[in-house]
Amino acid sequence: MNGGFMFRRGIVIALLVAVSTWSVGCGSTQRIAPQKHVPVAKRPTPPPATSTPKVASTPPAKAPVTSAPAKPAPSAPTSTAPTTPRGDLVGARIVVDAGHGGTDPGTKGLSSAPEKTITLSIAKELAAELEDRGARVTMTRTRDVFIELERRAATADKTSADLLVSVHADSHADRSIAGATIYIARGATARSKRVADAVLRSFKAAGIATRGVRNADFRVLAGHRRPSILVECGYLTNPTDAKNLGSEAYRDKIATVIASGIADGI
Ligand SMILES: [Zn+2]
Q1: What's the CATH code, domain 5-42+50-64+72-265?
Q2: What is the 32 CA–ligand 1 centroid distance (Å)?
Q3: What is the pLDDT of residues 67-93, one digit of tens each?
Q4: Which pTM does this prediction carry?
Q5: How far, in Å, is the centroid of ligand 1 from the Cα of 119?
Q6: Contact, 198 vs 135, CB < 8 A?
Q7: Which candidate, 115, 118, 119, 113, places its Cα nearest to that of 105?
Q8: How far does residue 66's CA lie from ligand 1's centre (Å)?
Q9: Residue 109: CB partners within 8 Å, gap ≥ 6?
């Protein structure tokens, strides 16, 4: 906890009021592109009472931006993390959204694990890598729980995020369809476009098949006012993508690719 925590908490409450007011009158939150794996909110269980869970589960682990102490361990294995934090994201506020969760498994396809498990694995590693680079990261979920889309989107406004990145995996009736796709909202900010292009380049540089940058008003993209991208990391209905995404090493690679793209484009 740093000294500004209580102060920031006050701001968050004020923002909550402002955001809820804005949401009522903002048509953009209603314009949601049809996509099978981004469901309309259900309410099987109430969302957790805690606000914006942080990457680390222990209070002291979310380090201030100053000369960061040791990297917080709980969020991801350290083996694949960069040995030298580059510091190229110092001060950047980034929301990492692991798609689906809890009663919403996302797509299943051919993989051994449902989409919600794969997205959480990538998101945790991504959060760790972004923190290594100096970013201040908030995760919309750090465990297998259902979080409503509106709440995920609101986190971007509440934290005044410089970027929200939502992690998903795709599905298609045609099993030959493969590759990563980056989505931005139709009215995306210049930063959103820049980051999306940079993440796409990063995928290509890593030799991973891509399907370009596309526009869609998913709620996590269009339901708030901050820059944002949604990364479909591959198709769980494609045998190769599904096998790759079932591997922790590959998921960590994806996280590195996304982190690198964010650092280049933000
Ligand atoms: Zn999804």
Answers
A1: 3.40.630.40
A2: 14
A3: 444 444 444 444 444 444 567 999 999
A4: 0.70
A5: 8
A6: no
A7: 115
A8: 35
A9: 115, 169, 171, 235, 236, 237, 238, 242
